[in-house]
């Protein structure tokens, strides 16, 4: 049961400085925290061999101490006060897995102020307060590691910072939210509408009772801001990400995309352009034969285009207790290897670019160039030409035109795939289409991402 966290730990100075156990304090013992404890205990010998020393959880802060005691047993000190973990003199690294952006910020900053390294899976915290947290860590000479915050089991931060260190990154694109990918997979495979697919995701535990962060694209935008910062050495720009979720997506468009040879995925895209960086999260058509289109259910995938390595792709679980724990413990292993070296060189801070004055600008929505899918309801099949003529007048290049397959209760629908065009130009074209008498309803538009090398 409960033991006093101060009295229960052996002082660090009483043990050898070299190869001593890395002592971990954890804030939160929910899904991720409990998974982290289980994996640490189960694989302790392998983890110690890879880290060069043992890693031991010594204190946990939890709201429900009885529940926490049932998870960690008698060998771990418990406290109801996260600040005791953050300030404890015998803790080397604080793992924050409680979530949220308010109190979590205070706990993490307190840990840093007391000279602790920090490992977190809290993408919202870093997206909102990352600049402040990384600046504080740099000042204190400690590391902030966050692999579990970006794509759960996929080691994409390490890939960007280490595996692709020789490369100039051109773009990063990914399916980085498992809930929305599950919903989109159900809409395609079972012909469900959005509401029915969401209800199924909630019933199976893939979506929260309030799924807003997932289905509105906010969770993916948090992650994309971290990916872009690592890919391009730019400050965190979460507030500048163009975000569109899947709540307005119709099953008709999922079916029409299939007819044209595409599948719809919620993509996070960060692309370097001559005039700045695109940062956007939105549902997009991907060719059905593309590897990214084969990522189904709650799985995640990230694709990177770089100048030397070319196209690389990373695939793995988009959610899960031990899946996230895998990333958290990988960060702990990195921290364990830090003795005598500059922490920022080995654990993923954002690097020297955090305060750069020449940081890349984020392109406004109107300036982003992509191809597009349009579904235009018309009053008669013969009015296809009126649609293409209007697009030509608006300087929108048309690559393919087709009629949607007939469906009961649905009038004729003209399907258009455009060539690359500025979003601002396309918006004007859609406005012009809506004013035409031939158009019988709202014009649906989605981006098309070919994800080519």
What's a quick, concise take on this entry?
The protein has 15 helices and 17 strands. It is an alpha/beta fold and 453 residues long.
Description:
This protein has 453 residues and is an alpha/beta fold. The protein has three domains: 12-152 and 324-355, NAD(P)-binding Rossmann-like Domain (Rossmann fold, 3-Layer(aba) Sandwich), CATH 3.40.50.720; 163-317, Dihydrodipicolinate Reductase, domain 2; 366-448, ACT domain (Alpha-Beta Plaits, 2-Layer Sandwich), CATH 3.30.70. It has 15 helices and 17 strands. It has helices spanning 31-42, 44-51, 65-72, 82-87, 103-113, 123-140, 156-163, 178-190, 194-203, 212-215, 218-232, 251-259, 321-336, 384-393, 423-434, and strands at 22-27, 55-61, 77-79, 93-96, 117-120, 144-145, 169-175, 242-243, 262-273, 276-287, 299-306, 310-317, 369-377, 398-403, 413-418, 421-422, 444-448. Strands 7, 8, 9, 10, 11, 12, 13, 14, 15, 16 and 17 form an eleven-stranded mixed sheet that branches. A hairpin with a 3-residue loop joins strand 11 (299-306) and strand 12. Mean pLDDT is 92; it is low at 5-18 and 351-357.
Number of domain modules: 3
Q: Which structural class matches the secondary elements?
A: alpha/beta
Low-confidence residue ranges: 5-18, 351-357
Radius of gyration, in angstroms, nearest whole number: 24 Å
- Beta percentage is 15-25%
Approximate shape: elongated
Mean pLDDT: 92
- Using the coordinates above, name the CATH class of the largest domain: Alpha Beta
- End-to-end separation: 57 Å
